[in-house]
Specification:
Blueprint (H helix, E strand, L loop, with lengths): L2 E4 L6 E3 L2 H7 L2 E3 L6 E3 L5 E2 L80 H4 L28 H12 L2 H25 L1 H7 L4 H11 L12 E12 L2 E10 L9 E7 L5 E7 L15 E10 L7 E7 L2
């Protein structure tokens, strides 16, 4: 079945599908005269039916059947009319007294000279001889008449509102503005990523260090060595007594990666002969011999640290590297 409808304004016939009628509740817009009308009024099957007449003929509804006349009501006996009785005519009311002049007017015998008009006044300027005409009030075009009813706007179908919204976003100016905003947001995201991962970028790509330092000068940050604890390992350790309850810790720190990393701190834990914890100390990289500033790539560093425990004797120890 192929459906079609005819425009109620210009009579143009065009095809239509059921999905469009279901989405727009039957309302469509004519592509020739832009008239919005209900397509279901003149809907027909273009393959099996002839187009409806245009303009649509008005078919009056069938007149309702007239009910059978009711039988006339029985005559009602009227009471006898009362006989008229004679009454004397009403007396005329006295006429109100009207004064010849209102209160405050001069009496009739007070003679005074009345002003006389001349055709051409001689003592007045030409502008004064013409009466000033009062300006007529003008009605602003933007203000509606107080008694004029304002017509309510016609409802717009949902599919037309969606089409207008899509057309608004497809304008060249709007698309250029969206592209500019997208580029600016992308640049800000890249700058944020560069600031957050500045240590790793400087270690993996040394030529970027100068640019990252310039960026940090504007944002108030600092480019330091990359802290990567999984790249470091302690290969060997030894704890040797020095006399007078003094000890010397010797260890070898190794960097297993191809980039320089930041020096770690060391946690030294001591235990007595029973295995109970005796002391715990954190050793900064600057306190080691020699002091560590950076662990070079693919290198081993021999380090030592001397300390004293007083009268307590150490039977066991452990060393762990970490970043504070």
């Amino acid at each position: 079945m192929s459906l079609a409808t005819r425009c109620t304004a210009c009579g143009t016939i065009f095809r239509i599908v059921e999905d469009q009628l279901r989405v727009s509740d039957g309302w469509v817009r004519c592509g020739r005269c832009a008239e919005i009308f209900d397509a279901r009024e003149l809907l027909f099957d273009i393959e099996q039916e002839t187009p409806p007449p245009w303009p649509a003929a008005f078919v009056p509804p069938p007149a309702p059947a007239m009910p059978a006349p009711l039988p006339p009501p029985p005559p009602v006996q009227q009471p006898p009319a009362p006989e008229p009785s004679w009454m004397p005519p009403p007396e005329p009311e006295p006429e109100p007294r009207i004064d010849p002049l209102p209160t405050g007017w001069p009496p009739a015998d007070d003679l005074r000279q009345e002003p006389r008009w001349e055709d051409e006044p001689r003592d007045l300027p030409p502008e004064a001889s013409q009466p000033a005409s009062a300006p007529e009030p003008a009605l602003l075009a933007s203000e509606p008449m107080p008694d004029t009813p304002v017509a309510a706007p016609a409802p717009v179908p949902e599919f037309m509102r969606r089409a207008e919204t899509a057309a608004r976003w497809n304008r060249p100016g709007v698309r250029l503005a969206l592209v500019a905003v997208s580029l600016m947001l992308t640049l800000l995201l890249l700058l944020q990523i560069a600031v957050h991962f500045r240590h790793a970028l400087a270690a993996l790509h040394p030529p970027l260090r100068a640019g990252l330092q310039g960026l940090c000068s504007m944002t108030g940050c600092e480019v330091q060595a990359w802290q990567r604890i999984e790249a470091l390992s302690i290969d060997s350790t030894s704890l040797n007594p020095l006399g007078s309850a003094g000890y010397k810790l010797n260890l070898t720190l190794r960097n297993k990666t191809a980039v320089d990393v930041a020096p770690p701190s060391l946690e030294l834990s001591l235990t007595d002969a029973s295995g109970a914890p005796l002391a715990r100390r954190v050793i900064a990289p600057e306190a080691l011999q020699p002091p560590l500033q950076r662990v070079s790539a693919d290198s081993e560093q021999a380090l030592s640290f001397s300390f004293s425990t007083g009268s307590q004797r150490v039977s066991g120890y452990s060393v762990v590297a970490f970043y504070p």
